[in-house]
Amino acid sequence: MFRIIPYKTNRIIEYGIYMRNQEQEVEPAIFRIQGYITDMDLPPVNMDQRATNNNVTWMKQHFQITGLGTAAFSRAVLVIRAIQELVTREVNTGNIEDWQPSSYDTYPAIDFASPYFVRGSSAADMSFANSIDPEGTLAAKAVKHKVVRNPNVLEQFYEQGIKDMEGSRKTTYAEISPSRVRKGHLIDITMEFKMVLTYGQIWKVILVPKAMAVLKKTFDNAYVKWRIEDTKMKPTKHYQTIASKRKNMYAEEDDLAGESAGRYQKVSQGGHVREDPGQSMEGVSEH
Which stretches does the entry tag as region Disordered (predicted)? Predict the structure, then answer.
């Protein structure tokens, strides 16, 4: 059960979806979705990009996933739309941009994007993970252009494995460099939902990627057949600006192929989203 909570400064510029964990603490609701990568521009950022990306506000990591027409992925799209309707009811003024999936060939797809920089205080954390900025390219740009590191840059990349332990099999997750992620990989994304007010005074739903886990590196037969039949397909891109907090997302006990990953809400399960009818949560601003 979810609560829609505004983030307040002098005025409301962001809404988030929150829920209580097992300790009854309020935290952002984390969702999962799986799909094949069809397009991507992921770290690491190297020196070659220093000259080609002079406008740092446009520097971002992005990727697109599709379910190749599977029912689960189609349901996920419907759930995202339902969550948009839920959050929209909290926004009383201003224009609202309707979220729509992009497409890859005839299949629905979902785009994720995270800018590397945001405007902010010079006292903010400027350091990027070594796997993201091994040559210090981004750090140098931050100083030169007087911007700061976006706290929502996707830095958690994992690869799922299976380990035999005393007659049983255990799912494990090893941290990997994003340079090992390839198009066609089947991945699991943990993400948050936000509705933010853009500089153009338009409210829009954004999908905030928190972590990525590679589940399968070999192409499924369906994907191979699809690529052989049409090698000219190009993805559409809808870049998005995001804002949220980072948190370690994967643990060894999480079995993303099964039902044991109770820490997350599966976006592809069901088509209904409802608000928490309970009482107000302590320590959280509400209106």
Answer: 254-287
Residue 217 lies in a domain: yes
- What is the extent of the structural domain holding 65? 3-53+60-266
Give the residue carrying structure tokens 């799986």. 34
- CA distances 206 to 35, 101, 126, 217, 260, Å, are 18, 12, 24, 28, 27
Integer Cα distance of 59 and 96 in angstroms? 25
In which residue are the tokens 């608000």 written?
A: 275
Sequence-separated (6 or more) residues with CB below 8 Å from residue 273: 2, 79, 82, 83, 86
Q: What does the alpha-carbon distance between residue 25 and residue 172 come to, in Å, rounded to a whole number?
A: 27
SS3 169: strand
185-222 confidence digits (pLDDT tens): 999 999 998 888 887 888 888 899 999 999 987 665 65
Whether 285 is in a domain gets the answer no
- Within a domain: residue 15? yes
Name the nearest CA neighbour of 149 among 46, 59, 237, 250. 59
Is 272 part of any domain? no
For residue 264, give the nearest of 101, 82, 76 by alpha carbon. Answer: 76
Helix locations, 100-182, DSSP H: 137-145
Q: How far apart are CA 181 and CA 212, in angstroms?
A: 10
Amino acid at 252: E
The full length of the chain comes to 287
Name residue 131's amino acid.
Answer: S
Distance of CA 268 to the CA centre of its chain: 15
pLDDT per residue as tens digits for the range 116-175: 888 776 555 668 888 899 888 888 888 888 888 888 889 999 999 988 877 788 889 999
Rounded to 5°, the CA angle 41-44-46 comes to 105
